[in-house]
Design a protein that fits this description.
Layout: H1 12-33, H2 39-46, H3 56-77, H4 89-105, H5 110-117, H6 123-146
Helix pairs in contact: 2-3, 5-6
Length: about 150
């Protein structure tokens, strides 16, 4: 399997704009709520029902709703990129469980550690992000070039 960039549909300016929006939203959540915009933490917090502070659910629901709404708005303005998944459901389920396990074991996901943690110069987040990236590089190399 070859990995190539579709240069005809490469969108560096839209990608930059999206990255700026992600960074801005992370800064706004930190400034206004004192919370880190890690998706696993936001979703995990929605599943807590006892001993939670007032307003605990409202900002989390708004955050998740914003994630879903932004995709819908993008789809109205631009064509959504096509996605082809070559794997079956059993492998996808195992992969999802491994990602969830890794997220809990690493005390957060890539969005929390990489986007928010590195920006705060958190050594734990820098180490976690390096671990995520090296693991991804090694796995991709093994899957695409060795096996």
């Amino acid at each position: 399997m070859n990995i190539t960039i579709d240069w005809a549909n490469f969108t560096p300016w839209l990608s930059l704009f999206g990255g700026v929006l992600i960074g801005l939203s992370a800064v706004m959540l930190m400034a206004f709520k004192g919370r880190i915009a890690g998706i696993s933490g936001v979703l995990g917090g929605l599943m807590q029902f006892s001993n939670v502070p007032k307003g605990h659910f409202s900002w989390r629901l708004a955050f998740v709703f914003g994630l879903l709404l932004s995709s819908a708005i993008y789809g109205l303005v631009w064509q959504m990129p096509s996605a082809v998944i070559d794997s079956g459901y059993p492998l996808l389920i195992v992969a999802g469980l491994l990602v969830g396990f890794g997220t809990r074991m690493g005390s957060g996901c890539t969005s929390g550690h990489a986007v928010c943690g590195i920006g705060r110069l958190s050594m734990r987040s820098i180490a976690a992000t390096l671990s995520f990236m090296v693991s991804g590089f090694v796995t991709a190399y093994l899957l695409f070039h060795v096996w």
